[in-house]
Design goal:
The complex is a heterodimer.
Chain A: H1 2-32, E1 44-47, H2 49-57, E2 64-67, H3 90-97, E3 101-104, H4 111-117, E4 121-124, H5 131-144, H6 148-169, E5 177-183, E6 189-191, H7 196-203, E7 207-208, H8 221-227, E8 231-234, H9 246-250, H10 259-262, E9 266-268, H11 271-275, H12 281-298
Parallel strand pairs in A: 1-2, 1-3, 3-4, 5-7, 5-8, 8-9
Antiparallel strand pairs in A: 5-6
Helix pairs in contact in A: 3-4, 5-6, 6-12
Chain B: H1 21-44, H2 52-61, H3 74-108, H4 121-135, E1 140-141, E2 144-145, H5 146-168, H6 175-199, H7 204-212, H8 221-239, H9 241-247, H10 251-256, H11 261-283, H12 289-299, H13 305-329, H14 338-360
Antiparallel strand pairs in B: 1-2
Helix pairs in contact in B: 1-3, 1-13, 3-8, 3-11, 3-12, 3-13, 4-5, 4-6, 4-7, 4-11, 5-6, 5-11, 8-11, 8-13, 9-13, 12-13, 12-14, 13-14
Classes of the chains: A alpha/beta, B mainly alpha.
């Protein structure tokens, strides 16, 4: 008798947990798009470089009519120079493209409110806080664009690649102390272990010189030198971001004492992949793994 | 930075009195001690804690015959000697130069509200830096960074124009027209700078960062760039201390005593321009140092330029080193622009000076 009651309670708890999970998964859609019962969108506008990559990766590219000026991947995406990711205009988007779905990552200028006012569905996908959220955003895109199966396969493929990278690395990345530079001195900013990109390094077992909860803290040069990371990764190596190179870093006053500088372990990261949380996460992880293997080949 | 209203010293101002050598030596020693303590504070205090006794032992370990082992690690050594020391030295050099130049201008123009930017140095350097930031694609010209080069040249051209404008209406005999020439030139150059900024709003942050000033260094290069100009300016200004005292009596009286006032004024303006332009080129526009430090020295009862100038030099250096210490520690690990710190301290002091000048004027 007692066992039967226990089993019923367990079953009820399971159903309740499943219901809660379903609500949590559906929340982004209910909250930010009227997906339920809607037909498949045929005129999608993406004002999120990450979402653009995901849309094309799940096979929804043919439904996309316009993407923002920063959406440079894939090259076939219909990029519009007038669509600025950080200052979009809802009314301009509506009048120029007549979309039936707009995907955005940054709600600047009350664009969500403007688009909803003209009855356009909006899917809001802000910067992912973790890999789990990044995967869920891809699945949500699949649901809203009627590419659920492709989205699920894409996520499984990404998870498989991540597992493969971990296996390939073994324990060689474990405990390596890293510094991920976002911008150079005098305005020195780093990605901490709490940022999305910082968590990617963490999934490989690497440590970060800063665990600041803000994700992208300002640091002083003294702090970086004192931490003496074993590897330095640069996201500001392109000319538009500062044009920082390994040589630039090595010749900064005092930086010559840092272990990474002495070991020539300064690596530029793919600029786009490092700032997005879409399907090319695996490209970034492969690059990091490659750099770790190069480092380990010379330093045990 | 600031444009001072014309206010010439009058006969009612305190007379320059001779002082005893012992008392002068005491002031100079006190200023030297303050400067030394501020330099040590700048060297000892930072984001990373390095025990001061370890730094001192490291210094002693470099001395011959002492055979002292340095307790500093390679990392701590790099932080102290490669990061902090050049920065502290640059702050001292810039602060000392600006304060000395301010004292010289206040003497030569007999205007207590004069500062080193009086004749358009700030506007000229600001325009030069803005042009370098927004128009020069390759920011290195013959191995020299374009920004300090353009700022330096802009400052020199601005003062040259101001002098030309002032002279054309009789500045050879009156400093008032020279100051007004500086006002006109500064307004004109600032207008061009504003126009350029409006056309390149994407570069506004870079321009304002430069305008607000910084002594964050990339090693010793800025120090070495500024040092020769600063030394020339310092030597020229310091040896004119006695003549500035005489000119404090008024141009007619000074000429009566055989001083070639026009020539002295030209030489001092030239030295101030070179020193200020060099300071601005490497550190941006740092306000109030050249204005309030000489006044602080005067508050000590010192009127003779033979003492006012060297004391302003040393205390200006100490003041900017301490301001920089605040700038890099108050919101650590971020930094405040040093111009903000000097303004926060300098603006109230400036208000007091204004109030005092009105009371006595």
């Amino acid at each position: 008798m007692t066992n039967r009651i226990s089993r019923r309670i367990a079953a009820l708890a399971g159903v309740a947990a499943a219901a809660v999970l379903a609500v949590l998964v559906a929340a982004p859609l209910v909250g930010h798009a009227t997906a339920s019962g809607a037909s498949c969108p045929r005129r999608i506008v993406s004002i999120s470089p990450t979402a653009t990559e995901s849309l094309f990766a799940i096979g929804a590219g043919h439904q996309v009519v316009a993407v923002d000026s920063d959406s440079n991947f894939p090259s076939t995406a219909p990029r519009k120079s007038g669509l600025i990711a950080y200052s979009p205009s809802g009314t301009a988007i509506y009048s120029d493209y007549r979309p039936d779905l707009v995907v955005i990552s940054y709600d600047a200028n009350h664009v969500i409110e403007e688009l909803r006012a003209v009855h356009v569905r909006v899917l809001y996908q802000p910067t992912a806080a973790s890999l789990r959220v990044a995967y869920q955003q891809i699945r949500n895109l699949g649901i809203v664009t009627c590419h659920r199966a492709q989205a699920t396969r894409l996520v499984q493929s990404m998870q498989g690649k991540l597992t493969g990278i971990r296996h390939a690395l073994g324990t060689r990345a474990h405990g390596l102390l890293t510094y991920v530079e976002i911008s150079a001195p005098p305005s020195l900013y780093a990605a901490s272990s709490r940022s999305f990109i910082g968590q990617l390094f963490g999934t490989l077992g690497m440590r970060n010189i800063t665990t600041d909860p803000s994700g992208f803290p300002a640091l002083s040069q003294e702090q970086v030198i004192a931490a003496s990371p074993q590897l330095i990764f640069l996201t500001d190596h392109l000319a538009k971001d500062g044009g920082v190179t390994a040589h630039t870093v090595a010749t900064r006053p005092g930086w010559g004492s840092i272990r990474a500088v002495r070991a020539h372990a300064i690596y530029p990261l793919n600029d786009d992949a490092a700032s997005r949380w879409g399907p090319r996460i695996t490209v970034l992880l492969q690059q990091i793994a490659h750099d770790v293997l190069v480092y380990r080949a010379h330093h045990r | 930075m600031t444009t001072a209203p014309v206010h010439e010293f009058t006969d009612a101002d305190p007379v320059v009195l001779p002082r005893g050598r012992a008392r002068d030596a005491m002031w100079l020693a006190a200023a030297a001690i303050i400067l030394a303590l501020s330099l040590l504070a700048g060297l000892f205090i930072g984001d990373v804690s390095v025990p001061p006794q370890d730094i001192l032992l490291d210094v002693l370990s470099r001395a011959p015959l002492l055979h002292i082992h340095s307790p500093l690690s390679a990392v701590d050594s790099a932080i102290v000697w490669q990061l902090r020391l050049p920065r502290v030295v640059l702050a001292a050099l810039v602060g000392g130069t600006l304060a000395l130049c301010g004292a010289a201008y206040q003497g030569i123009f007999r205007n207590p509200l004069a500062d080193p930017y009086l004749l358009g140095v700030a506007a000229g350097a600001g325009l030069g830096a803005t042009i370098a930031i927004v128009e020069v694609v390759n920011l290195t010209v013959l191995g020299v960074h374009a920004l300090p080069l353009f700022a330096f040249c802009g400052a020199l051209i601005a003062v040259g124009l101001a002098y030309g404008v002032g002279r054309s209406v009789g500045a050879g005999r009156s400093s008032t027209t020279l100051i007004l020439g500086g006002v006109a030139v500064a307004a004109f150059l600032t207008a061009i700078q504003t126009f350029l900024q409006q056309r390149h709003t994407d570069q506004l942050a870079v321009i304002y960062n430069w305008i607000l000033g910084s002594v964050a260094t990339v090693g010793w290069s800025q120090v070495l760039t500024m040092l020769p100009y600063a030394l020339v300016a310092m030597v020229v200004i310091l040896i004119h201390g006695r003549l500035l005292d005489v000119m404090g009596l008024g141009d007619d009286a000074a000429r009566g005593l055989g001083v070639r006032t026009g020539q002295v004024r030209l030489v001092v303006i030239g030295a101030v321009t070179i020193g200020t332009a060099a300071a601005v080129a490497v550190s941006g526009l740092i306000g109030f140092v050249g204005l309030i430090v000489p006044h602080f020295v005067r508050l000590l009862g010192i009127r003779s330029h033979r003492m006012l100038l060297p004391l302003s030099l040393m205390l200006g250096a100490a003041f900017l080193v301490l301001c920089d210490l605040l700038a890099r520690t108050v919101v650590s690990p971020s930094e405040l622009p040093i111009g903000v710190v000097t303004a926060i301290i300098g603006a109230p002091a400036f208000a007091v000076v204004l109030r005092t000048s009105r009371v006595h004027g």
